[in-house]
Amino acid sequence: MLRGIRIMEGAVLTTREGTHEGATEAGSPGTGARTGAGAGAGFRGESARPSRAALLTMTCLGQFMVLLDSTIVGAALPDMQQRLHTQLTGLQWIVDAYVLLVAMLLLSGGVFADRFGRKRVFLAGAAVFTVASVLCSVAPSLGWLIAGRVVQGVGAAALSPASLALLAAAHPVAQERVRAIGLWAGFSGIGLAAGPLAGGILVSAFGWPAIFLVNVPIGAALLLAGLRILHESRNVGAPDIDVPGTILSVLGVGALTYGLIEGGSRGWASPVILASFAAAVLFLVLFVVVEGRGSAPMLPLRLFRQRLFTVSNTAMVVVGFALMGSAFFFSQFFVYVQGSSILRAGLQTLPASLAMVIVSPYAGRCAARYGFRIVVTVGLALAGLGLVAMGFVHTDTGYGNVWWRLAVTGIGFALTMSPLTGAAIQAVGPREGGIASGISSTTRQIGAVLGVAVLGAVVRTGEAGAASLEAGLDRAFLVAGAVTLAGAVFTGLWLARSTPA
What we know:
Layout: H1 7-21, H2 49-83, H3 88-116, H4 118-137, H5 142-169, H6 174-188, H7 190-206, H8 210-213, H9 215-229, H10 243-266, H11 271-293, H12 307-337, H13 342-348, H14 350-370, H15 372-390, H16 403-426, H17 433-464, H18 469-494
């Protein structure tokens, strides 16, 4: 669910750059590069409308596959737990292995696309994602499934930014580019809402491997059509790839995630967990040092001197933490606490994702009218209240008294995504809008990794004592809600009142 909302950020980015740059450049989310001169070079025969329509279809389909995989896995977690004989820790790794790689490679994926060719990276991402989906579907054990999810994350980190970079390069005129990205966001965003329902149907009929096999025909179609339809484009002025920064970020956040996920079962004072936290601190300190001294860092630390940039990205970590962390438990709550079937649980989680798909396109307009502070703070407050309300749902609570809590949560988070990215972009110069958008996506993904890890630890703490699984899940929703409400207070005090330029 979480990752799909970044589809709206490209529209914010291109609108802003079209205003300031005269539509001479198109930023790619997840990259600090620009298409620059020859933005239309990604499109042989620039006036060929049928080719542009085919390109739009392909990029929508690629992003649809990524977004579908973001929400469809949640519906399959109960079945995975039963068939793979794993505990909550294993389910956390199934989700976080994917999100961690996407978070850490997203910025590099965009630079790869601009530097080595958007068509090449798009097709490579589609191929890796498809092969990884097959590996996941035939995984004989939890370890193999986690490995497959890691490879899937690598593919998604290449496929997603490359798809938008291709679309932006094919539409050098600002108005056409914004319109195309709007269609791309709308059509591919259907994957968000389709995930829970499709997951419930496939798992009920065939078991959890089917949720990965559904990617195979989509990926095959992308590869076959892409070889014939897509034309190569690149940005010869793209920055160098920050290999040391990328490696250190993966190691640092990975070590922190390991400690948070495994700490509940191994013991928080065990040597392995303490060593993982120490390693996380070491790698992240080295990352800051490298990024501060590098000539082309993946994370320019100077941007954080702008209060608006720092506050918006801090709030985005909160959004990722609470949204992904709570969404991880939605299906499990309905299956294990309320006794729903997997199919019914998929249907029951729909209000949250549908609310996000419906409301997200209007969030930017609201921010333009009322300002970042009001819209984001209201959104975080609504999401926080919705999650706190979920913390008081019990075994005998009727669904008529549950669905609106999910809907309020989805509406609240939908109101925060695009405005927070717009605030981050406005805090920097127009030529740095691409890297600002990419950092915004990355901070949200980091929050997602931490949310699944930390809230999972909260649930396990509840199970270890006298409390039941129900109490542990309720506690997790309450913690997520409290963090989100604290984020609302934070943005209410510190986020700028200004509206998008």
